[in-house]
Write a structure and sequence with these properties.
Strand order of the largest sheet: 18-19-17-16-22-23-24
Radius of gyration: 21 Å
Shape: globular
Low-confidence stretches: none
Structural class: alpha+beta
Largest sheet: 7 strands, mixed
Length: 475
């Protein structure tokens, strides 16, 4: 049995697989997010407790030894820990918006662009650079008390294994301090962000990913565990996206477009990031938007619609949603890809007393589709496209997305991040697994020519509305 652990933003999961990649069991536990005044925080003990719980459940349901375990999880944010990996304070989530004024300042004075040209990372309020700088001003005692500022999966790895010190990997370290060429921290970037005196908090980069043995919580003592990559590159591995030009769209809480590339191009509009992978000279050009299914969740909750009703509602209203339009930028920290606009907010237009719940749901799904197309085009998609995440559970939405994107979708269902974490761990431990069998798509959705033509025009209109909204956000 092979176990993948995926520590998500709102849900922690563990999945057991057999040697052919067949899912044997999945266990999941929700974890909370505390939102207040632009702050978005998580309780690290709650997150770790959920990891132990799902591991205990999944290993009890599947007999046999655990050959190895791969760990992945949400990226960015700041998880301050002591020498034992225990929390110094609540974790600041990647969704956090408290540092938006710092990002605004760095956008205005050129620091933002300078950092991008050096690292390929376009900072946003919830990434470690701005958050650490904000904490250094407003909560220095927490930084003083911490041994390391790590990422979610690194905290879990240290506590699962009892590792002597905190480390991270090249994928998580890619935002915003890592030089993607040397795969080491860029001290000039650290200096530009005013964090040289906090340099010691940055966890050493383990390249390749760190490994250790479980100490007996959740997993049997002695189980081999690998730490990383984080969830975006893990999903790319789990979906079989490794050839240059091929892409992945993750329709989850975060909407993320990723394209594999062997070219490091740091020109163009600073946006997204270049994620280092386990192969030097190979990157993922990533455009992780702030909000994906979370936008639809908000609309469903506000209108009293259940998730299982979405497919039926999409069938009740035509493409274009009877004139209702949604710019799906619902995050309290604005947007980070394929552009950075900390003050941008969602907009609903074309709504009247005649508008229905179906119109609002379809308009939201279309708006998320347009945002996805924007991200994938900016990331340089030229090859095939895989899609995964919670949104794949809606066949009608997948057909809509295929039309909006104008291309076939290789739908990969199940626990794709956990699957990728196992494949990464197997590579690290020298265990041969058939990656093609492990990443075979569940189905392929073909676009409709009439729908493609309609949404091509709709995408142009979306970009025009977005440009106007960005202008208003800067006023």
């Amino acid at each position: 049995m092979y176990v993948g652990i995926d520590v998500g933003t709102s849900m922690v999961k563990a999945a057991a697989f057999d040697g052919s990649g067949r899912e044997l069991a999945v266990a999941a536990r929700p974890v909370g997010l505390a939102l207040h005044g632009g702050f978005v925080e998580q309780d690290m003990d709650e997150v770790y407790g959920a990891v132990v719980a799902v591991l205990e459940e999944v290993t009890s349901r599947v007999p046999g030894p655990v050959e190895l375990a791969g760990l992945t999880g949400q990226g960015d944010g700041v998880w301050l820990v002591d020498a034992q990996g225990r929390p110094v304070r609540s974790a600041a989530s990647w969704m956090d918006g408290r540092a938006h004024e710092l990002v605004d300042r760095w956008l205005a004075d050129g620091t933002f662009e300078t950092v991008f040209r050096r690292t390929g990372s376009a900072m946003f309020p919830g990434c470690p650079g701005p958050l650490l700088a904000w904490l250094d001003t407003h909560d220095p005692k927490s930084l003083d008390a911490a041994t390391a500022a790590v990422y979610c999966k690194d905290m879990v790895f240290q506590r699962l294994t009892g590792a002597a010190r905190a480390t991270t990997d090249v994928s998580d370290a890619s935002m915003p301090f890592l030089d993607p060429r040397s795969r080491t921290y860029d001290n000039r970037v650290i200096e530009l962000l005013g964090l040289t005196h906090r340099r010691g908090l940055l966890a050493p980069v383990s390249d390749p990913v760190a490994t250790a043995e479980a100490r007996g919580e959740g997993l049997p003592a002695g189980t081999r565990v690998a730490d990383g990559p984080y969830d975006l590159p893990a999903c790319a591995l789990g979906a079989g996206v490794t050839a240059p030009g091929d892409g992945l769209l993750i329709v989850g809480t975060c909407l993320a477009g990723l394209v594999a590339t062997g070219d490091l191009d740091l020109t163009g509009e600073p946006a997204g990031l270049h994620i280092c992978t386990d192969r030097p000279g190979h990157w993922l050009r990533a455009m992780p938007a702030m909000v994906g299914t979370a936008a639809l969740d908000w609309v469903l909750s506000t209108t009293g619609v259940r998730h299982e009703e979405v497919d039926g509602l999409l069938a009740q209203t035509p493409p274009g949603a009877n004139g209702v339009r949604v710019l799906p930028y619902f995050a309290p920290s604005g947007e980070r890809a394929p552009f950075v606009e900390p003050r941008l907010r969602a907009e609903l237009t074309g709504v009247s007393l005649e508008s229905t719940r179906a119109d609002l749901v379809r308009a939201t799904c279309e708006g998320i589709g347009y945002a996805a197309r924007h991200c994938l085009e900016a990331a340089g998609l030229t090859g095939s496209l895989a899609v995964c995440g919670g949104g794949t559970r809606s066949p009608a939405w997948m057909r809509l997305l295929s039309d909006v994107l104008g291309r076939p979708l290789r739908v990969v269902e199940g626990e794709v991040g956990a699957r990728g974490a196992v494949l990464a761990a197997a590579e690290r431990f020298g265990v041969e697994l058939d990656a093609q069998a492990w990443t075979r798509p569940t189905s392929v959705v073909e676009p409709d020519a009439e729908g493609v033509a309609f949404y091509a025009k709709g995408h142009e209109e979306h970009l025009a509305r977005l440009a106007a909204a960005r202008d208003r956000a800067r006023d």
